[in-house]
């Protein structure tokens, strides 16, 4: 798909990607443009799904609705307070629904919304990429850290 088929072309000298300095456009052959999407909106969404727990919770909710304690067992290391906050944030953003069933005791289930399920596809691709590239990233970090240790520090630094 060419960039021109993605919609109207941006005006000359306008920013088309969140985080791109004003008055610039992405390099030719770079990532697709994000014209028409406010950078603040993109950042706020990425803050939600980029936090420590949201991606894991989304993955655990993928197959089926889950009760709170079941989710807590499935998300190793999360506290009750953090799971509550994560679920509330995901619910606020329209990615998760909370259903209360009038039983004794009350039964509460969490499930992905349609929007949450489309995000699950993206998250699963990201998780797959991370798994496939973990060794490459580890080697790059090790090499970077080695070079950083070997470089002489400027006078007055550190």
From TrEMBL:
Chain coiled-coil ranges: none
Biased composition annotated in UniProt, kind: Low complexity: 16-32
Region (Disordered): 1-32
Database matches in Pfam families: HxlR
Biased amino acid composition, Polar residues: 1-15
Keyword Transcription regulation: yes
Domain of life: Bacteria
Record key words, sorted: DNA-binding, Transcription, Transcription regulation
Residues spanning the membrane: none
Ranges of residues in domain HTH hxlR-type: 34-138
Protein name as annotated: Helix-turn-helix transcriptional regulator
Organism: Pseudonocardia xinjiangensis
């Amino acid at each position: 798909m060419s960039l021109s088929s993605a919609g109207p072309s941006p005006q000359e000298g306008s920013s088309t990607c969140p985080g791109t300095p004003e008055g610039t456009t992405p390099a030719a052959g770079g990532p697709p443009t994000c014209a028409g999407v406010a950078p603040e909106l993109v950042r706020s969404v990425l803050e939600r799904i980029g936090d420590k727990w949201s991606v894991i919770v989304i993955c655990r909710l993928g197959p089926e609705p889950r009760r709170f304690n079941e989710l807590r067992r499935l998300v190793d290391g999360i506290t009750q307070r953090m799971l509550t906050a994560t679920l509330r944030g995901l619910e606020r953003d329209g990615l998760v629904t909370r259903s209360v069933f009038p039983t004794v005791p009350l039964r509460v289930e969490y499930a992905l919304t349609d929007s949450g399920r489309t995000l699950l596809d993206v998250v699963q691709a990201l998780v797959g990429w991370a798994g496939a590239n973990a060794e490459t990233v580890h080697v790059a970090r090790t090499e970077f850290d080695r070079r950083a240790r070997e470089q002489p520090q400027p006078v007055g630094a550190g």
